Amino acid sequence: MPTKSLLIYVGGRLLQAVPIMFVIILINFALIHAAPGDPVDILIGGADATPEYIEGLRREFGLDQPLWQQFVTYISKIVQFDLGYSLRYREPVLSLILGRMPATLLLMGTALFFSSLIGILLGVFAARRPYSVGDYTATFVSLAGYSMPVFWLGQIMLVIFALHLAWFPTQGMYSLRAPSQGFGRILDVAHHLVLPAITYSFYHLALIYRLTRIKMQEVLALDFITTARAKGVAEGRVVYRHALRNAILPVVTVIGLNFGFMLAGSVLTETVFAWPGMGRLLYEAVGARDYPVLMGLFTVLSVMVICANVITDVVYALVDPRVVYR
Amino acid sequence: MTTITHIPAEPSWWRIFSRNRGSVVGAVVLVVLFALAIVAPMLLRFEAGRIDVGPSMAPPSLVHLMGTDELGRDVFARAAAGLSVSLMVGFGAATISTFLGVVIGGLAGFFGRSIDALLMRLTEIFQVIPRFFLAVLLVAFFGASIFNILIAIAVLSWPEIARLVRGEFLSLRSRQFVDAARVAGASRTSLIFGEILPNALGPVVVNATLMVGQAMLLEAGLSYLGLGDPTKASLGQMLQEAQQIMRSAWWTTAFPGMFIFLAVLSLNLVGDGLTDVLNPRARGR
């Protein structure tokens, strides 16, 4: 793999993201001005502000200037990573969001890892025994998996496993009495993570399972698999070395393309379990009509989605020799 | 000597649809849910939004089939009313976004070239923007009313249909039967509406069915975050209220959520069956 052309490829993909970023900033800007009421009320975001603060905001965003000049001011702020200030939290929006990001990434990462692993294994299992009882069961469960509102599943899990059986804590990420560092801390966080992670995994597991099953069935019917079997390659090796390799690529793509939906699922799951991530922040910001935080979250989450898309494309280009990157 | 070949008649669409047992069950459940949403307000003993029709947080019983909530409202009556709101938003949003998608995708696929390039660029941008969060922004900024929620979901859901329709148009517009019509002097309008569109509708119908379910889930998610119309309780909103009291009243979350789940599941099952009917290549799997 020549490194130079790969760099050019990544650069090109990033360049393609520029117009999308522009549209996202434009949407934020348009919302500030199109929403009913004074734009300055939006920038305050449902908190009590002193007249001096309001005056300061007006000057900062140049609200007495022509619209195009305001837009230039707005863009230049965002380009300098200034996403505004939350009066309610008395903190810049960006640092507020970045502070909540690790919790979200921990939840998403854990869930994605396990659901991809189990989803792929189940998909292989079902593809090897198509139309068996196991196949039908897995297919029906996966259909249920993505017909279910994730927050409802979370509530049901919470009622059964946290409230009635009391196996897991009901909310949050740590308990107050648990050790605040070391191994005890890790165990405590893991204990809190179990229910939200299982809840969140379900949809994703369903998706990965379904896709793997379809792809595996396609690949297993191809000639090179027959050839491998005819050569006397062991069946396990045929399935896991020859077939799975080819079936796994689309799975990678789907994770990348669905990243936006996955973030939405994470937000709803965090809300159920009061998991202190970006989703919980979104819920609080909706409740308080904290518009700067809402716009900041939209911007940051969009950037995350764009990054996920670029990473997916690069991984795809690295793994699949057939992709010619221009 | 001539041989007479007998071509078996194409089985009726119901025969094909009903081969998939899941789809039939889905269709039946869907009809029952619709009937419930329409008829329940007239038949049920309790008014949907009325407080103190029973004790606070009474468990399910013969009087209150799904129990009561904190304010003594009948959960069954409210859930049935909420179901009608959710179904309305789902079908309304899916209809509008399908229409948008067919128009945009059809224009791009039929005219090609610069129009295609421009519209597809727009479509890509809309596909990358995380739509759930944009819907949250739109509803938070413009106010939580059923109308705003419906429009926000519709405006954000068209890209898939547009891509699908564009692909169909691209492949259909150079087929022989379209060329024949063109040579015979058909106008652009009659080419689009008379020749191409009818042949592109199969996948569109399937996708629209699935989109109703997606829209219902989106609506439920928005209301759950506190962006539901405060004047008309939807199922998602009931789940938000249940969050506080479900430790002592599980029925306030279990039943409304079950309605959403059943509605979306049956829509997905029906979508599967419609795929068999409308896409002959996918049959016999």
Overview of this protein structure:
The complex is a heterodimer of chains A (326) and B (285). Chain A contains 13 helices and 2 strands. By secondary structure, chain A is mostly helical. Chain A has one domain: MetI-like (MetI-like fold), CATH 1.10.3720. Chain A is globular. The two termini of chain B are 39 Å apart. Chain B has a single domain, classed as Orthogonal Bundle (MetI-like fold). With 285 residues, chain B is an all-alpha fold. The chains are: A mainly alpha (326), B mainly alpha (285). At the A-B interface, helix 1, helix 6, helix 7, helix 11 and helix 12 of A face helix 4, helix 5, helix 9, helix 10 and helix 11 of B.
Task: Please supply descriptive tags for the structure shown above.
heterodimer; A: 326 residues; mainly alpha; MetI-like fold; 13 helices; globular; B: 285 residues; 11 helices; 0% strand
Summarize the model shown.
The complex is a heterodimer of chains A (326) and B (285). Chain A has 326 residues and is an all-alpha fold.
Helix and strand composition category of chain B: mainly alpha
What is the oligomer described by this structure? heterodimer
Low-confidence segments of chain A, given as residue ranges, are none
Strand composition percent of chain B: under 5%
Itemize the secondary structure elements and their pairings:
The complex is a heterodimer of chains A (326) and B (285).
Chain A: H1 3-34, H2 39-44, H3 51-60, H4 67-79, E1 85-86, E2 91-92, H5 93-128, H6 133-145, H7 150-164, H8 182-220, H9 223-230, H10 235-257, H11 259-273, H12 278-288, H13 291-319
Antiparallel strand pairs in A: 1-2
Helix pairs in contact in A: 1-13, 5-6, 5-8, 5-13, 6-8, 7-8, 7-11, 8-10, 8-11, 10-13, 11-12, 12-13
Chain B: H1 13-19, H2 21-43, H3 75-111, H4 113-128, H5 131-142, H6 146-156, H7 159-172, H8 176-183, H9 188-227, H10 235-245, H11 251-278
Helix pairs in contact in B: 1-11, 2-3, 2-11, 3-4, 3-6, 3-7, 3-9, 3-11, 4-7, 5-6, 6-9, 7-9, 8-9, 9-10, 9-11, 10-11
